[in-house]
Amino acid sequence: MAMDFRKGKGREDPEINLIPFIDVLLVILIFLMVTTTYSKFTELQITLPTADAEKATDHPFEINVGVDAQNRYAINNTPIAFNDPAGLADEMKKVANEKGENRRDPIVIINADAQAPHQSVINILQAARLAGFDRVTFASQTSGKK
User: Fold this and answer.
1) Number of neighbours of residue 122 by Cβ within 10 angstroms
2) What is residue 30's predicted lDDT score, i.e. its pLDDT?
3) Could you tell me the end-to-end alpha-carbon distance of the chain, in angstroms, rounded to an integer?
4) Eight-class DSSP state of 48
5) How far apart are CA 109 and CA 99, in angstroms?
């Protein structure tokens, strides 16, 4: 028969010391508060400037060069025969001289059909370079979809 000397004493349950646990949680809480970025500081309230510009009263001289899907060329809606870019450049110079606007650098507007060959657009660009017209732009239309 074994003797139990702890007969009168109850068994003690192990305890978790909460004070160091609370200290660690407070340090983590302070760290999170310091490193948090608030979204209200990152949002920018921007009011874009507006401009009421009048349309230019001085219209620059334009040469409209068109090419369709069948590789037919036209200058200012007048069909022309295309042999090579040099010939097209001569035609463009002729149109510029007819208008008497040769002293001002004309803007060459390329109106190419969506199905026109890429080479035909390159031909117009090369002709504009040969004619000495370095202001070139492309015409397009809006799709109407938004």
Assistant:
1) 11
2) 93
3) 96
4) -
5) 16
